[in-house]
Amino acid sequence: DSLEDEYSIDASRIYVAGFSNGGFMAYKLACQLSERIAAVAAVSGVMSNSVASSCQPLHPTPVLHIHGTEDPAIPAEGIGPDLLPSVDETLDYWIGFNQCRKKKVADLPDEDLDDGSTVERITHTDCANSSDVIFYKVIHGGHSWPGAPVSVYPGLNRDFNASLAIWDFFSNHQLPTAGPD
């Protein structure tokens, strides 16, 4: 609200993206501030069980998720049934909520043969309000932001630039407009 008071902001194009704990935050905002969030992107973070249990967005929300299959900090398969949900559980929530009906899987070109990883793009489309759910599955990728110059963890993928992919995704979405009363 403060930023809107001071700057010219298109309120229909407010997005949230985050890495690791920031990814958890992005999902939390998509659930708790959905009337303001047009789309969400999470890199190496999932939707916590506590957020998922109370998540009631007001509209289908476009989601882009990027996660390495060998992430040591936030394992893609989750940690136990009650500690940390898996990437699949997180995405299944949004695929269901957004009522997506089609799935397409495509391999990205292996642009860097030395990074030890490849990327599979899984796109869920034909969703309510064009709220697609896209998953960049980084095979053998670690806890990192693809395309970054460096990573603390091993498994940095250089086949695509996560920042550019996220912006491209965001730029194609805005809050749904209310229909006639």
Question: What does it look like?
Answer:
- This protein is α/β, with parallel strands linked by helices and 181 residues long.
- It contains six helices and six strands, in the order αβαβαβααβββα.
- The chain has a six-stranded mixed beta sheet with strand order 1-2-3-6-5-4, sandwiched between helices.
- It is globular and about 45 Å long.
- The mean pLDDT is 94.
List keywords for this structure.
single chain, 181 residues, alpha/beta, 6 helices
> Uncertain segments of ≥5 residues (pLDDT<50)?
none
Radius of gyration: 16 Å
Structural class by SSE content: alpha/beta
Sheet with most strands: strand arrangement: 1-2-3-6-5-4
Total number of helices: 6
Categorize the overall geometry: globular
Mean pLDDT: 94
Task: Please summarize the sheet with the most strands.
Answer: 6 strands, mixed
Total strand segments: 6
What are the secondary-structure elements, in order, as H or E? HEHEHEHHEEEH
How far apart, in Å, are the first and last alpha carbons?
26 Å
Q: Which band does the percent of strand residues land in?
A: 15-25%
Q: How much helicity do the residues have? A: 25-40%
